């Protein structure tokens, strides 16, 4: 008998399956599945060692998505967010947990930062814990994660961001960016900077588009030097604010596409001995609790995270596919903008 561990992988386009490994090793599919299940204690028997060696040689990789579906429901929903240190994401998760509980589900959360590879690993980890579906606040336009979920038939809903294909519950970001900028224009500002967020995120792109639309409607030319792409973290907002406020002809107003970025702008402004509401106008987005608690309360665009969470859970196990629910935002004006008029 030939040594099966020295066999070359079969030349075929389809992925290697448990059936292929079972056939090559002469054991049952269920035995192969049990040996290769990383969640179970690792057997050190000769048979198990042989199965693992053959699986590696053939190039077998476990399909977490498919195996999760095969095992049936567990009454849990996996929630994936970039960072729980982000106030919006922390509040969103709490609201999702409440909405899920009302529907008889328990939630577990995972974080993945802002990297595509980490997002994919986190999704596999959640599915490996037998969740019945996923709610993702991480969808990137340059990621294939949701495409894989659709192909594997995994129920999922996107929140705050959309890939324009999966079920999604989002704020109307174009309108939100428009009303934030229009507010500043109505106060007399014509030189308005924007901390625009990352280009891989649908919400930052939408808010930037709304900013541009408001400028165009008011007959104000868009200036690339006033549009600073950033990440979503505080430090990125600080760097972007520093760039805008150090311009020879600095903007009299700044729109930051999240409150977190607006806080970064305030930090940068201190370096120039500038204060929002006194030396320049500032508008944020998401209307987080902190926005109204600062020494200079921040004007911000409000979106109802509780309703977004409710709709996300509602869509997750519904019959509809590809539905995008847009929630209209509203502007909450505060000291950071309304007391500084040009």
From TrEMBL:
SUPFAM superfamilies reported in the protein's UniProt record: lambda repressor-like DNA-binding domains, Periplasmic binding protein-like I
Coiled coil segments of this chain: none
Stored InterPro entries: HTH_LacI, LacI/GalR-like_sensor, Lambda_DNA-bd_dom_sf, Peripla_BP_I, RNA_pol_sigma_54
GO MF, one annotated term: transcription cis-regulatory region binding
Pfam families assigned to the protein according to its UniProt record, in alphabetical order: LacI (PF00356), Peripla_BP_3 (PF13377)
DNA-binding among keywords: yes
Annotated HTH lacI-type domain residues: 16-71
Protein name (Swiss-Prot/TrEMBL): Transcriptional regulator, LacI family
Source organism of this protein record: Vibrio gazogenes DSM 21264 = NBRC 103151
Species lineage: Bacteria, Pseudomonadati, Pseudomonadota, Gammaproteobacteria, Vibrionales
């Amino acid at each position: 008998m030939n040594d099966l561990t020295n066999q070359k992988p079969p030349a075929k386009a389809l992925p290697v399956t448990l059936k292929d490994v079972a056939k090559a090793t002469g054991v049952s599919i269920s035995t192969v599945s049990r040996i290769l299940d990383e969640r179970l204690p690792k057997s050190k028997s000769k048979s198990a060692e042989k199965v693992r060696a053959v699986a590696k040689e053939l190039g077998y990789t476990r399909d977490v998505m498919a195996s999760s579906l095969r095992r049936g429901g567990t009454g849990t929903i996996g929630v994936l967010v970039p960072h729980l240190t982000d106030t919006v994401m922390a509040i969103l998760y709490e609201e999702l947990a409440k909405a899920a509980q009302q529907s008889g589900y328990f939630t577990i959360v995972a974080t993945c930062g802002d990297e595509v590879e980490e997002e994919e690993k986190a999704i596999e980890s959640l599915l490996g814990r037998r969740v019945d579906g996923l709610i993702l606040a991480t969808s990137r336009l340059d990621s294939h994660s949701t495409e894989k979920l659709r192909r594997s038939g995994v129920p999922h809903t996107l929140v705050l961001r959309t890939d324009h294909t999966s079920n999604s519950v989002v704020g109307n970001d174009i309108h939100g960016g428009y009303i934030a900028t229009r507010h500043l224009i109505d106060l007399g500002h014509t030189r308005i900077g924007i901390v625009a967020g990352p280009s891989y995120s649908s919400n930052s792109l939408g808010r930037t588009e709304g900013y541009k639309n408001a400028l165009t409607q008011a007959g104000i030319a868009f200036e690339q030097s006033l549009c600073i792409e950033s990440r979503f973290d505080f430090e990125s907002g600080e760097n972007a604010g520093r760039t805008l406020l150090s311009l020879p002809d600095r903007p009299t107003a700044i729109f930051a596409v999240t409150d977190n970025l607006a806080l970064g702008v305030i930090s940068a402004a201190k370096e120039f001995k500038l204060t929002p509401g006194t030396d320049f106008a500032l508008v944020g987005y998401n209307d987080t609790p902190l926005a109204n608690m600062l020494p200079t309360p921040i004007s911000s665009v409000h979106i109802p995270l509780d309703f977004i969470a409710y709709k996300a859970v509602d869509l997750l196990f519904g019959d509809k596919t590809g539905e995008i629910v847009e929630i209209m935002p509203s502007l909450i004006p505060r000291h950071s903008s309304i007391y500084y008029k040009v």
